Amino acid sequence: MAVLEILKYPNRTLRKISKDVQNFDDALHTLLDNMYETMHEKQGVGIAAIQVGVDQRVLLINIPREEDNQQYKEDLLEIINPVFLKKEGSTKWNEGCLSVPEFYEEVDRFEEITLAYYDRFGEKKILQATGFLAIAIQHEMDHLNGVLFVDKLPILKRKKFEKELKKAQKQ
What we know:
The protein has three helices and seven strands. It has helices at about 25-40, 130-145, 155-170, and strands at about 45-50, 60, 75-90, 90-95, 100-110, 110-120, 125-130. A hairpin with a 2-residue loop joins strand 4 (about 90-95) and strand 5.
């Protein structure tokens, strides 16, 4: 397994729309394993393939458990070719992103989602999610469509972000 480089905003690749996975093969399994290693190393709760430069509809989510705030590999969700079946309610969530380091802001999201997807072996799955899990899935699915959480910010917060980014890049 390898830790991959995470692309950082404003890298143009992050704006690509990811393509459906066609082959559930060893190459996909290696990508999934490397993405897990990368996410774990960078202390993320989610990662999309495009963040490591691969434009495939693949994402991982590993939410820490409430009782000890630890991530366990057996809780890992490998989500391939996801499609929303239902999106309900609305909530605000303070989000961050491995591709937009050290910036956090409140984003509007759906409160509850239902998702159809495939696992690493091409088995079809259905998932209902609320809370942090629903938020993380929406955030990572945005990546598959070339959207970053900062794109969802109101104009004044977006300007604040751009200003902070320019300042950080000068240092």
